[in-house]
Amino acid sequence: MKLDILAMAAHPDDVELACAATLHKYVMAGKKAGIVDFTRGELGTRGTPEIREQEAQASAEILGLSARENLGFRDGFFKNDEAHQLEVIRAIRKYRPEILLANATADRHPDHGRASVLTKESVFLAGLKNIETEEQGVKQSPWRPKAVYYYIQSIPQNPDFIVAVPEEAWQVKMKAVRAFKSQFFDPNSDEPDTYISSPKFMEMIESRGIHYGHEIGAQYGEGFTVERTIGVKDLFALS
After folding, report:
1. Of 181, 124, 165, whose CA–CA distance to 148 is shortest?
2. Which of left, alpha, beta for 72 (phi over 0: left; psi -120 to 50: alpha)?
3. CA of 83: how far to CAs of 33, 64, 118, 193, 218, in Å?
4. Which terminus of the chain, N or C, has fewer Cβ atoms within 10 Å?
5. Is the pLDDT of residue 137 over 90?
6. What are 208-219's pLDDT values in tens digits?
7. What is the DSSP-derived secondary structure letter of residue 23?
8. CB neighbours of 21 closer than 8 A, spacing ≥ 6?
9. Is 22 left (phi over 0), alpha (psi -120 to 50) or beta?
10. Which sign does the torsion angle of CA 9, 154, 231, 166 carry?
């Protein structure tokens, strides 16, 4: 299945927290979007890998994704090496996205920065014809997305650009976030408190969306960084 936009993430819920409103905005516009999670988040303090898998699929339905896949890498211990790169290359060639969204280049969780570099290097390698991969026994063709953008996660960064998202897309994002019931605030939960399980964390996500939106005169916004200079063909098209 060819996708227009693909988000890759170290953990289930990374995309939901950082850029799900952007994904849904384009789903609303008729684009095909998907997520590839690298790990099952099995080192998480709350919930189980099985529960998080169910939550991830529920979120995918809420967002209207065309595909969601988990590569089954080891949470906390995956590497940026040949074996892992080949799996990421396979996924990129499988979905053939025009735009790829990746983890923050640096963040509180070391998996995020490592996943970012793994994704970046795999994107380049995916375009080389002499690297061979297969999907269900069929040799894959080279593919390299036109652009890679990095979503912002826990550590605040100055975005290189902000995507304006409408109220409807933002509310769908928050519904998708809440699909991960095991991870976030639940007054009835008896599991240990974590960095992301307090109501203040959810308030931060909402506030950040409002803040980014305010910066560009929109209701809500999601910020991204780039490593390649963005070319502009028309100054009058910039908001």
Report:
1. 124
2. left
3. 26, 31, 11, 35, 42
4. C
5. yes
6. 999 999 999 999
7. H
8. 163, 165, 169, 170, 172, 173, 209, 220, 222
9. alpha
10. positive
d(CA 96, CA 226): 20
Cα separation values, 197 from 2, 77, 120, 225, Å: 35, 23, 30, 26
- What pTM was computed for the model? 0.95
> Quick one: what percent of the chain has pLDDT higher than 70?
100
CA distance 50 to 199: 24
Q: Residues 6 or more apart from 203 whose CB is under 8 A from it? A: none
Tens digit of each residue's pLDDT (9 = 90 or more) over 60-78: 999 999 999 999 999 999 9
Q: Can you tell me whether residue 41 is helix, strand or coil? A: coil
Q: Residues for the chain: how many in total?
A: 239
What integer pLDDT is reported at residue 169 of this predicted model?
Answer: 98
Distance between CA atoms of 97 and 169, rounded to whole angstroms? 21
Higher pLDDT, 177 or 191: 177
For residues 216 and 223, give the distance between their C-alpha atoms in angstroms, rounded to a whole number: 11
For residue 59, which of 186, 212, 175 has the smallest C-alpha distance? Answer: 175
